[in-house]
Amino acid sequence: MTGLAAALAEGLGADLPGRLGVAVSGGGDSMALMHLMAGWAQARGADLAVVTVDHGLRPEAAAEADFVARVAAGLGLSHDTLNWDGWDGHGNLQDRARRARQRLIADWACRRRIGAVALGHTADDQAETFLMRLARGAGVDGLSGMAPRRAAEGMLWLRPLLACRRAELRSYLEELGQVWVEDPGNVDPRFARVRARAALTVLAPLGIEAATLAGVCRNLARARDALDAHAEAAARRVARIDGGDVVFDRAALDALPGETRRRLMRHALVWVSGADYGPREGALEETLAALADCPAATLHGCLMLADGPTLRIAREHRAVAAAETPTGALWDGRWRFDGPHHAELTLRALGEAGLAACPDWRATGRPRAALVAQPGVWRGEKLVAAPLAGLSEGWRAWLATGEDSFFRLVDSH
Q1: 273 is in an annotated binding site
Q2: Is 72 left (phi over 0), alpha (psi -120 to 50) or beta?
Q3: So where does ATP get bound (predicted)?
Q4: Is 26 known to sit in a ligand binding site?
C-alpha cells in the first residue's frame, strides 16, 4: 500500500487545482484509484468528488454505478452518475463510448468547478495501447502511449497510475477486503484491446511484457517532446494566428526539416478543427502535394488555402454548418462570445448569407472562404453581429483556449 500511495503521489505531480475529480467505473483499476485518492485527499485536505458514467449498454450498469456511489459515500466522497444514450449501433463502439464519456465528465467537472479528473489507466493499459497503435503503423507520437497529463475539453486529465500494474491494484483491493466489478467486455475478443491483452501473454516469453512496453512508451515520449520542442520554436518563427486561423509563411515553412513541417501541419489541423487526433500520415502528405497545383484543399474538417506567400489553415464551412449554440455557450469547441446575450440569440456559422450582411468583411484581410466558417450572432435568419467579419455591434469573439495555445506543442498531448 505504501508503494502504491507513493506511486500515486508521484503520478499526480504538483501544481494541481484545488478541486479534483476521479472517474470510477467499478472495475478494479478505478476502484483502487478511488481508495488511493481518498487517502491522498484526506491527508492533504483536498476536495475530491467521484463520477461514474453509465453508457446504457448493459442492464447491470445502473447497479454498478450504485455500487460505486455506496463505496464513495463510505469514503466520505460525493458521487454523481452521468448517463449516455447516444449509441446507435453504428461505428466503433469503444471509441464512441470513450469520446462520450470524456465529454460528459468534462461538462460535469465544469459544473462542479473541478479543474482536473484522475483516470485509472495502468502500465498494462499502456502496453495494450502500444500494441494497438503499432498494428496501425503509428509513429513516434502514437507509440508514445497515453500521457500522464493531458489537457482536453477545457480541463486537465490525470493518469497517476501509469507506472502501476493491474495485478498490484487488485491485490491492494483484496487487502482492503474490497470487491470490484468485472466488465464482460474485458474478455470479449471482438475488441482490439482484449486481443492485445492476449497477445501480451504470447509475447511474454520473449521479454515483451507490460512493464517493458510501458518503458518503451516513456522513452518515445521523451523523443516526442524533443521533436515538439523543436517544432514549437519553429512555429513562433513561421506562423501567426489570424481570426482563429493558422497562417504560415510558406517559404519559411518549406525550409523546415520534413518532420518539423509535418508536425506543425498536423498540429495546426488539430488545433483549428478541435479534433482529438490528427489526420493519417498518408492523407496529410497527399493533401500537401495537391496544394502544389491547386490553391485550396480540405482535410480533417479544415480548409487549406495556399495564397501567394502564405498557407492558411481555416475551418471548413461544411464541418460547422450545422453547429448552433446559445450565445453564452462554447461554439465549435473553440469560440466564446461577449455581448448583450439574449435567449432568442444563437451562434451559427456565417455562410454566404451571413457574410453578405457584413459590408466591411474585406477590411479584415481574411479570405471569403475562411470567413464563411466563422461564427456570427443570429436571431433566427437575421444576422445580428459577426465580430470576426467586421460587424461587431457590441460583441466580441475570443478563443477559449487563447491564441498562444497553438504555440505550445509540448503540452498538446
Answers
A1: no
A2: alpha
A3: 25-30
A4: yes
